[in-house]
Amino acid sequence: MDESAVPEGSPVPQARTARPATRRGGQRAGFLETLEITIDAPDAEAVARFWMGALGYERLYERPPYVALGPMPLGAAGPRLLIQQVDSVASAKSRVHLDLRMWDPSAEVRRLESLGATVDRVVSEAGTTWTVMADPCGTPFCVCPARAPSS
């Protein structure tokens, strides 16, 4: 700040380190508490069953039009998945999708197919190969090789 712009005799504002405001209960605003990923589905129940099997998640609650899934026990690490019942889904390419990084991608593709997923295509690019799949209502996701710890 240009101190010459402060009227004479006025205190000069001191620089402060920015910190998030606090919310009720002492929680800090701007810090992620829970990550939730929402998937639109014309058959929310079928998609919920698929993702429960795919991720090993449990049904946390149902509050129409949502079915909430998450890791157990409650509070375990991992995002929640909200399956939202909708009348129809847009046919345009989704701009967000899940990548499931697995140590044995081929085995995971077979397991997910047994749960109702379908293979769309296999992609080989940038020195790696992954499988683009769709859940029972057509939501795309990828099964990819696990990353090395430093990646």
If you had to describe this structure to a student in words, what would you say it looks like?
The chain has 151 residues and is an alpha/beta fold. It folds into two domains: 34-87, 2-Layer Sandwich (Signal recognition particle alu RNA binding heterodimer, srp9/1); 97-151, 2,3-Dihydroxybiphenyl 1,2-Dioxygenase, domain 1, CATH 3.10.180.10. It has two helices and eight strands. The strands form two sheets. The protein has a four-stranded mixed beta sheet with strand order 1-4-3-2, with helices on one face. It has a four-stranded mixed beta sheet with strand order 5-8-7-6, covered by helices on one side. The model is unreliable at 1-7 and 10-23 (pLDDT under 50).
Outline:
With 151 residues, this protein is α/β, with parallel strands linked by helices. Helix content is 15%, strand content 32%. Strand 6 (118-125) and strand 7 form a beta hairpin.
What is the CATH superfamily of the largest domain?
A: 2,3-Dihydroxybiphenyl 1,2-Dioxygenase, domain 1
Termini separation: 42 Å
Rg, rounded, reads 23 Å
Name the structural class: alpha/beta
Fill in the CATH topology of the largest domain.
Answer: 2,3-Dihydroxybiphenyl 1,2-Dioxygenase, domain 1
Output the strand order for the largest sheet.
1-4-3-2
Overall CATH class of the largest domain:
Alpha Beta
Integer count of domains: 2
Largest beta-sheet characterization: 4 strands, mixed
Q: Compute the number of strand runs.
A: 8
Beta-strand percentage range: 25-35%
The total of helices stands at 2
Low-confidence regions: 1-7, 10-23
Which architecture name of the largest domain does CATH use?
Roll
- Percent of residues in helical segments? 10-25%
Mean pLDDT: 81
Cα shape: globular
> What is the H/E order?
EHEEEEHEEE
